[in-house]
Design a protein that fits this description.
Blueprint lengths: L2 H12 L3 H5 L8 H15 L4 H13 L5 H5 L3 H10 L6 H19 L4 H7 L3 H8 L7 H11 L12 H9 L6 H8 L4 H13 L3 H5 L1
GO molecular function: catalytic activity
Protein name: Endonuclease
Length: about 210
């Protein structure tokens, strides 16, 4: 199978960004969708399954916590209850504290608007990652998840691929350089492609696409 054919197959079966799965329209590039994506990055950074992190992110939205100010009005017991109900039984209390610390930083440093972080990074992915890692609970994995998804609307960070997507690309005989990989997919499909590479890894479906 040619590389382009393999990419087409990946996009057809797994080509859905995690923001799209969450129901977040990043094309608006407004504070609320960006905040919800950052919450997903935090939740995915915890030692839980990706499905549980997604469920928790949806539960936060269902609770009405779609902006930093709305989350700030929540209580610790309320956050624990919502996270526990979403399956965060082992790390619900820790995450309930982390997410408020991270929310305080977002309000204090960026007035609740992640577009200010974008301006601060000035197109430098390393600067963006450093800024993202200042949020409580966000490490290399969480920062990479955020940039991997947000490049769809923050074009200065395109093409960005994290270790998870590139390790799968290598196993599938695809380029392990983000720029080379992007040339095979095209700019519009690249965020979907890197998400697909992560999804096929999470689904333990690499061998089928390789063989």
């Amino acid at each position: 199978m040619k590389q382009t054919e393999r990419i087409d197959a990946l996009l057809a079966e797994y080509g859905r960004t995690f923001a799209a799965e969450l129901g977040v329209d990043l094309s608006r590039n407004t504070p609320s969708p960006l905040f919800r994506l950052l919450c997903l990055a935090l939740l995915t950074s915890a030692p839980v399954q990706a499905e549980i992190a997604m469920r928790a992110a949806r539960a936060m939205a269902d609770a009405g916590w779609t902006t930093p100010k709305k989350l700030a009005a929540s209580t610790w017991p309320e956050r624990v209850k919502v996270l526990n109900g979403a399956g965060y039984a082992r790390v619900d209390e820790k995450t309930a504290t982390q997410i408020m610390d991270f929310n305080h930083h977002l309000l204090d440093a960026y007035d609740g608007d992640l577009r200010q972080l974008r301006a601060e990074a000035n197109g430098d992915p390393d600067a963006a990652i450093r800024a993202l890692k200042r949020f409580k609970g966000i490490g290399d994995t969480g920062a990479a998840i955020f940039l991997r998804e947000v490049q769809a609307v923050w074009g200065e960070f395109y093409p960005f691929a994290d270790k998870a997507s590139l390790s799968t690309a290598e196993k599938l005989g695809l380029p392990t350089d983000a720029a080379k990989l992007a040339r095979l997919s095209g700019r519009a499909d690249f965020p979907r492609l890197v998400a697909a590479l992560v999804r096929v890894k999470l689904a333990h479906d690499i061998d089928r696409f390789r063989d």
